[in-house]
Amino acid sequence: xxxxxxxxxxxxxxxxxxxxxxxxxxxxxxxxxxxxxxxxxxxxxxxxxxxxxxxxxxxxxxxxxxxxxxxxxxxxxxxxxxxxxxxxxxxxxxxxxxxxxxxxxxxxxxxxxxxxxxxxxxxxxxxxxxxxxxxxxxxxxxxxxxxxxxxxxxxxxxxxxxxxxxxxxxxxxxxxxxxxxxxxxxxxxxxxxxxxxxxxxxxxxxxxxxxxxxxxxxxxxxxxxxxxxxxxxxxxxxxxxxxxxxxxxxxxxxxxxxxxxxxxxxxxxxxxxxxxxxxxxxxx
Length: 284
Description:
The chain is mainly alpha-helical. The protein is 70% helix and 4% strand.
C-alpha cells in the first residue's frame, strides 16, 4: 500500500513540475501582459480619447486578438457561429468577438478551449516574431531564450529553477542586443516598436476567455496526469518531450518578453501624459 501511495505521489509531483516547466513562465508573462494592456488602454483612452486610440492602436490589436481565438476553433472541432474581428460597441465596450459551438462530450474539443482561450497570446507572439525577423533581421533574435534543461531531461525543482535563471539571463542579453543605439535611427525599429505596443496591448484575455481556458487546462492536466500514471512505472517516458518543446518555448518566451518590455517603455510616457490630462467629471 505504501508503494502505491509513493507511486501516486511521484506521478502527481512529476505532472505538477511538467506543467510548471511547460506553462508556468508563459502564464506569468501572459498575466503581466494582460495587466499591462489594461493599464495602458485606460491611460491611452484618457489621453487621446476612444476614437483616436482605436484608430491608432486598438484596431490592429483587436483583429489579431479575435483571429487568435478563431484560428484554433477548426483545429479542435469547434464551429464558429459568429466572427467579428473588429466591431466596436460603445454601449458595452466590446471591440470584437468570436462565438463558437463545440461537442461537450468530446475531450479533444474540451482541450481546445485552452488553446482557443490563449489564442491571442499565441498568434500575437507569432506575428511579433515574424515582424522582428523582417524588420530587425534574423541576427537580432539569434539569442532568443533557449530553455536549457541541463544534462538530464528529468523534471525537478532544480530544473525549474535552472529554467528560470536561463530564461532571465538570455532575455536580458537579447534585450540589450535590440536596444542598441544604432537601432534608434532605423525606421524599421520604430515600426516594430509600434507593432509590439499595439499587438502587445491587444493581448488582454477577457473573463470569458479565462473561463474557457480553465476548462481546457483541466483536460490538459488530466491527460498529462493519466499519461504519467500509465507510463511512470516503465521509467521516465514523458520528460524527454520537454527537450523537444524547449527550443520552441524559448522563442515564444523571448518574443513575449519583447512585447512586454516595449509596452512598458511606451507605458511610461503615456502614464505621464495621462497625469497631465484633467480628470473628466462622471456623467450625471
